[in-house]
Amino acid sequence: MRTNLADKLRTGISPQQFIDGMQKNKETFQSNYDAFVWDVASEREFFGSLNHRDDIRVLILAADWCGDVVRNIPVVFHALETAGIPTEVLILEENFDVMDEFLTLGGRSVPVVIFVDTGGHVLGSWGPRPKHVQQYMISFKQENPDREASDYAENMAIVRSQMVEAYGEGVDVRAVILKELRELISGI
Question: Among the residues of 105-151, which ranges form H helices?
Fold first, then answer.
């Protein structure tokens, strides 16, 4: 993993520019963004309490075609807006150099939310999805190491379906994302 991203600071686009420029999934993304509410006052208070911190920046690797971006990044945007943390979006296709430093299970998966200090030193990262959803992909990769196997695509379709179910099955994914971000930021 790359430890310094100073050369990427101030090269991304704002969250609003990302939304405005979306060619795919814009309506769903905007709907998810607009539907956001703070369910737990203590979560809002925690992120609001970060407004005094001027030592953190966030770079988010994202692509508008990605379902995980559409589900997760509206929550991330709200958390970071409330925290007052300067945030830039790096479009995946324009930043493979960064993406290749933040691979997930050896593959390019977005979103990746990268926390850095003002000098660009990486402090931590989150993504591409909540841990309980990511577990399905981890198991899939362990059970299906051969991408050329005749049943690989069929098995991938099954795991993707399971992941979609996990996003909405008995778990408020918004609360999970906020909790995971809170834990990460608390360690910075």
Answer: 131-143
pTM above 0.85, yes or no: yes
Chain-centroid distance, C-alpha 34: 18
* Domains annotated on the chain, with CATH: 6-128+172-186 (3.40.30.10)
What is the residue type of 108? Answer: R
**Tens-digit pLDDT profile for residues 113-159:** 999 999 999 999 999 999 999 999 999 999 999 999 999 999 999 99
Instruction: Please give the structure tokens belonging to residue 112.
Output: 């990746």
CB-CB contact of 146 with 124 (8 Å): no
Q: Which residue from 16, 46, 62 is spatially nearest to 178, judged by alpha carbons?
A: 46
pLDDT of 171 over the 60 cut: no
Cβ-Cβ contacts under 8 Å for 150 (sequence gap 6 or more)? none
Alpha helices in 58-102 (DSSP H): 67-83, 96-99
Q: If you search the block for the tokens 């099954």, which residue do you land on? A: 158
Report how far apart the first and last C-alpha atoms of the chain are (Å, whole number). Answer: 17
